[in-house]
Amino acid sequence: MSFDELLQIPPYSLGREDKERLLTVRLLELTERHRAGCSRYARILDSTGFDPAKVKDLSGFPFLPVRLFKELSLKSVPQENIVKTMTSSGTTGQAVSKIYLDRITSFNQQKAMIKIVSDFTGSSRMPMIIIDCPSVVKDRNMFSARGAGILGFSMFGSKRIYALNDDMELDTEALRGFLDEHANRPILLFGFTFMIWQHFYKELIRLGDQGITFDLSNGIIIHGGGWKKLVSESVSQEEFRTHLRDVCGLDKIHDYYGMVEQTGCIYMQCEYGHMHASVFSDVIMRRPLDFAPCRVGEKGIIQVLSSIPESYPGHSILTEDEGVLLGEDDCPCGRKGKYFEIVGRLKNAEIRGCSDTYAAKFN
Amino acid sequence: MIPMRQNLTEAPAGISYFVGDNDVLRNLGAVPAKEPFSDDVLDFLNEVSKMLMADSRSKLYSDVITFAFWIRRGSTSKLRERFERSDGNFRLGRGAVFHIAPSNVPVNYAYSLAAGLLTGNANVVRIPSKDFPQVEIINEAIEKALMTDSGKAMRDRVCLIRYGREREINDYLSNLADVRIIWGGDETIAEIRKSPLRPRAGEITFADRFSVAIINSNAYLSIRNKSKTAEDFYNDTYFTDQNACTSPRIVIWTGNKIDEAKSLFWAELHKLVSEKYRFQPIQAVNKLTSACLLAAAYSGVKIEPSTDNLIIRCKIGEVYDGLMDFKDNSGFFFEYDCADIMSLRDLFNDTRCQTVAYIGEPETLIPLLKTGVKGIDRIVPVGKAMDFDLIWDGYELCERLTRTLILS
């Protein structure tokens, strides 16, 4: 089964049984492809005695912990087929994930993303404001998650500007000019949650105090990248939304969940605040104690399954995030598939032991 | 009057004192050394022991009770018998000892202090950075004991402090020390060593180590009380999140009933771990990551099926070169069926290899040791891996913490 067959299906149209059946077939094929193409992956499967014949549904697939992509180089195609290597954004000194893409995987990422995002924005492209600085995408050889996100979403912009300069200051003149030029038209905004809060929202508040305001009530904003930094500033998701609405009239606000290890298959937040799995991917919340799938409403570690990766064995990954499955096929927004919410990162372990007198602090 | 060596400068700011104060610290280098195992020190430690035993909170912490036993008179007298030499020479403590205790093990600092006192020294100890209840209990007991008649004389010999990672304070304390003891961690050692010692000062460092368990399957099966064995093994491993240098990372099976012994052993342990261990969700992810990394690196690894993530076992086909680079904690075990004890030579020859915890006959290891292995400092029964002794990590602390004066 090729990915193109999945692409023919509207992204939120399949009910549970149909989706499970289709994805299971595709993921079994991917598992075998990676077993044949990636010896490290093959050895991992062998160590668990994995038997594809025993896979009945999506919960039966083995999953790789996401940190493996930081520790190991994992690819299932010859090096000469790699057209792009993506890396996760890590803080300095931290290991970053390295994700190797061949042409088809890279294409399919884009195609899936277009299908998913268009379901929320409509299929025509819009003038687009990127709430970040231009330099973040300059080095095309090494895509950071931030850069990759911006480039990925840039497909949806007819004309684009960056709202921030390279000193992360809001370019009010450019913003004003762009809004005047595209007055009364829907406008797409994109950025990372914390960047939007820190460099856009806070600046709009400051400008507002001086009587300078911007009207973005025609806008739709898509943001991602996690809430960790905002949680540390005690800003809730609800506050983020209401404050943004209050300061510039932005009403259509969609968070998304995604990761560089499964680019393309993002999980968009609907009008009801729920993250949605599309037909291209799925989530399974797993209990930490035994990795058994959680019930609806029960918090668990998020496993993500994607039908896209052909060049690296990242089609079934155990993240280090926690989430709660809210339901399946019955979200009031009308989209089928699983819908869920993100709780946040798993807490680091507090480990006893005698070799850490100082080291932990220096790392 | 004994000539005083006074630290000329004031102790730098940023030190918080838990027992003792700025004056005790400043004067530490001037405190006269004692002969090892002097009666007043033994009395004082016995007093601390009594305080600990009398404290109802101690019962909640087996490590506190174990320490209290270790410092009671009956036990320290035995140490005196073991370590006192009758070679006609005269011995004295080296003077001031600066101890850097691990931040994540509650009572290790107390043993280090006791060793310093027993050998006749004055001590400044950097205690764990975390607020363990055990630390509070022990500090209180020491404080109280220092108030008693036998304790007063010890007041200038005990200074328990905490500070961040200030280089200035490391410098000050290192300059003060006749011996510096660094517990744990290659990185810590490297960091502290940036602070110079005086030329005659000595140093004891406890580097990163790992430990192993060797279980003879027949011997295990003949044990009646297997739940006690599980408890012993738990104490060697899970009690410190399997992250102490003494915690076995690999279980090596010998004998000819390995499969039978394994299933009983792990089932008993699992029962106990389910009841006692505080499992943290990220540990499940960490252990899965370690298992996958190991499996990806070597062919022939078998991740044993398990009902949950409390115990993760990776069976290895041979003792791979570099195996211990894949070690993890919180219930992550390599497992090896050993037909020939000599196949362990490379593992034992690793200088990082510290303790063998055994069930069975330790004598069977002697031919292997006699090949001249570079690792292995102690071979002790399962359950005793954590037991502190004045010979530790291959060092005789009594010798390291005293001077020998020739009298001829």
Overview of the molecule:
The complex is a heterodimer of chains A (363) and B (408). With 363 residues, chain A is an alpha/beta fold. In chain A, 32% of the residues lie in helices and 23% in strands. Chain A has one domain (3-346): 3-Layer(aba) Sandwich (Rossmann fold). Chain A has helices at 3-7, 16-37, 39-47, 68-71, 103-121, 145-154, 172-181, 193-209, 228-232, 237-248, 359-362, and strands at residues 64-65, 82-87, 98-102, 126-131, 157-162, 187-192, 219-224, 252-257, 267-269, 275-276, 281-286, 299-306, 316-328, 338-345. Chain A is globular and about 65 Å long. The model of chain A is unreliable at 357-363 (pLDDT under 50). In chain B, helix 5 links the parallel strand 3 (96-100) and strand 4. In chain B, helix 2 packs antiparallel against helix 3 (62-70), helix 2 packs across helix 6 and helix 11 packs across helix 12. Chain B starts with 15 loop residues before the first strand and ends with a strand. At the A-B interface, helix 3, strand 1, strand 13 and helix 11 of A face helix 9, helix 13 and strand 10 of B.
- Domains of chain B (count): 2
Overall SS class of chain B? alpha/beta
Shape of chain B: globular
What is the CATH C level class of the largest domain in chain B, in words? Alpha Beta
Tell me about the largest β-sheet of chain A.
12 strands, mixed
Instruction: Count helical runs of chain A.
Output: 11
CATH fold naming of the largest domain in chain B: Aldehyde Dehydrogenase, Chain A, domain 1
Provide mean pLDDT of chain B, rounded: 94
For the residues shown, what is the average pLDDT of chain A?
91
* Count of DSSP strands of chain B: 17
Any descriptors?
heterodimer; A: alpha/beta; Rossmann fold; two-stranded antiparallel sheet; disordered C terminus; B: 408 residues; Aldehyde Dehydrogenase, Chain A, domain 1; seven-stranded mixed beta sheet; 16 helices; disordered N terminus
